[in-house]
Automatic annotation (TrEMBL):
Pfam families: SBP56. This is Selenium-binding protein 1-like. The keyword Translocase does not apply. GO terms for molecular function: selenium binding. It comes from Abrus precatorius. Keywords: Selenium. SUPFAM superfamilies: 3-carboxy-cis,cis-mucoante lactonizing enzyme. It comes from the Eukaryota. Belongs to the selenium-binding protein family.
Length: 475
């Protein structure tokens, strides 16, 4: 695989993470919006939201690209080219790759011809993917410096986790095959991140699609339908070199991020069910190890399905200067900011409540160790009560604005936040203090996906046209 060494620095993205911080302020953001699983028989769509505070359509959905099929469940998105191809003058960040988690289709969206009104460029059909690779349930996509696109897939066509692996598309979005070597597929699949200077890719473990697509059942964890491992691969060779068992402290490890500095050999992964942020790192002998970096204590609660409620860390990210880490507790309802300049001792520097199951007015109450009850103070924004809990987040390049949506996955939304399915998602923007730390809700920004033309929809992942800190990888 070429690292584009010696090329003129005029390809997509930025030469370094620190250079990206000085990039232009975001004016548009693309958001996947879902009708699948809501009872509304309409196709999912990609919403374009105006995030320019000087624009007359600020905080509004200005375009909707509806996909041509029903039942897709658009979820995460990635790019055909990113900063990993910055040195390649022939590369262009033109297409957004949008896998459909349930149907198995992969949509390729042209966002360059008209960034305010993207158009559908190509559809990779699940039958083609299954026939050539046996893979289904596509999730995370990353562009590679070679011009190829790699997509993690969570199972086979029958929803068995044993059939998962990594799909390769060529630069024209044709199915090439699997990335990993035969016999080197992970136990479960979900997210992945590569760090070429350490010749390493690490992937995470959600669960078997046959289980999670039906909603969450705690018994499925005991029955072995959910993961707790990190899978360490040789990069770019595709050989599974090591499997890290995170144990009971690392159940359902979801999003994974290396530090942005490509020389660093450290990263984090959020374990959803046990609500721990786990730091992984290379040891002196070249193997990889891990330790719990941050723990979110479960809340003792009344009037809920269990006597204790996990935070459920479902998404996190790291600022481009590697100073701050942000994560969400989807069930508790808070967003947290930690200073991670001392990687072994993260320091809580900001916290804001934007929803959750224990907010005032909810039937569920939390109980302190002293037996007192409490509920979180969640403000209304523009007269609107905040629904659900914080789920996906995206940070501006300069680190000063954090965007947040609140849908996880339609079957889980319906189970934990039925009001979210009935009334739709919303999108918020959080102002970030990057000097001293701190988070504050921007009262002027509120996108209500409950008032969409075809009915309430579920908003999930967000991307800027020029790239962001959860999709760009530097080499």
């Amino acid at each position: 695989m070429s690292n584009c060494d010696g090329c003129c620095k005029s390809g997509p993205g930025y030469a370094s993470p620190l250079e990206a911080i000085s990039g232009p302020r975001e004016s548009l953001i693309y958001v996947t919006a879902v009708y699948t699983g809501t009872g509304i028989e309409k196709p999912d769509y990609l919403a374009t939201v105006d995030v320019d505070p000087n624009s007359p359509t600020y905080s509004k959905v200005i375009h909707r690209l509806h996909v041509p099929h029903l039942g897709d469940e658009l979820h995460h998105t990635g790019w055909n080219s990113c900063s990993s191809c910055h040195g390649d003058t022939s590369a262009e960040r033109r297409f957004l790759i949008a896998p459909a988690l349930v149907s198995g289709r992969i949509y390729v969206v042209d966002v360059k011809t008209n960034s305010r009104a993207p158009s559908l460029h190509k559809v990779v059909e699940p039958s083609d993917i299954i026939q050539k690779t046996g893979l289904a349930y596509p999730h995370t996509s990353h562009c590679l410096a070679s011009g190829e696109i790699m997509v993690s897939c969570l199972g086979d066509k029958d929803g068995n986790a044993a059939g998962n692996g990594f799909l390769l598309l060529d630069s024209e979005f044709n199915v090439k095959g699997r990335w990993e070597k035969p016999g080197h597929s992970p136990l479960f699949g979900y997210d992945f991140w590569y760090q070429p200077r350490h010749n390493t890719m690490i992937s995470t473990s959600w669960g078997a699609p046959s289980a999670f697509t039906k909603g969450f059942d705690l018994q499925h964890v005991a029955d072995g339908f959910y993961g707790r491992h990190l899978h360490v691969y040789n990069w770019p060779g595709g050989e599974l070199r090591q499997t890290l068992d995170l144990g009971n402290e690392g159940l359902l490890p979801l999003e994974i991020r290396f530090l942005h500095d490509p020389a660093k050999d450290t990263g984090f992964v959020g374990s959803a069910l046990t609500s721990n942020m786990i730091r992984f790192f290379k040891t002196q002998d070249g193997s990889w190890s891990h330790e719990v970096a941050i723990s979110v204590k479960p809340l003792k609660v009344q009037n809920w399905i269990l006597p204790e409620m996990p935070g459920l860390i479902t998404d996190f990210l790291i600022s481009l200067d590697d100073r701050f880490l942000y994560f969400v507790n989807w069930l508790h309802g808070d967003i947290r900011q930690y200073n991670i300049e001392d990687l072994k001792n993260p320091k809580l520097t900001g916290q804001v409540w934007v929803g959750g199951l224990v907010q005032k007015g909810s039937p569920t109450v939390a109980i302190t160790d002293d037996g007192e009850t409490w509920q979180s103070e969640v403000p209304e924004i523009q007269g609107k009560k905040l629904r659900g809990g914080p789920q996906m987040i995206q940070l501006s390049l300069d680190g000063k604005r954090l965007y947040v949506t609140n849908s996880l996955f339609s079957a889980w939304d319906r189970q934990f936040y039925p009001e979210l399915v009935e009334k739709g998602s919303h999108m918020l923007q959080i102002d970030v203090d990057t000097e001293n730390g701190g988070l504050k809700i921007n009262p002027n920004f509120f996108v209500d996906f409950g008032t969409e033309p075809d009915g309430p929809s579920l908003a999930h992942e967000m991307r800027y046209p020029g790239g962001d800190c959860t999709s760009d990888i530097w080499i």
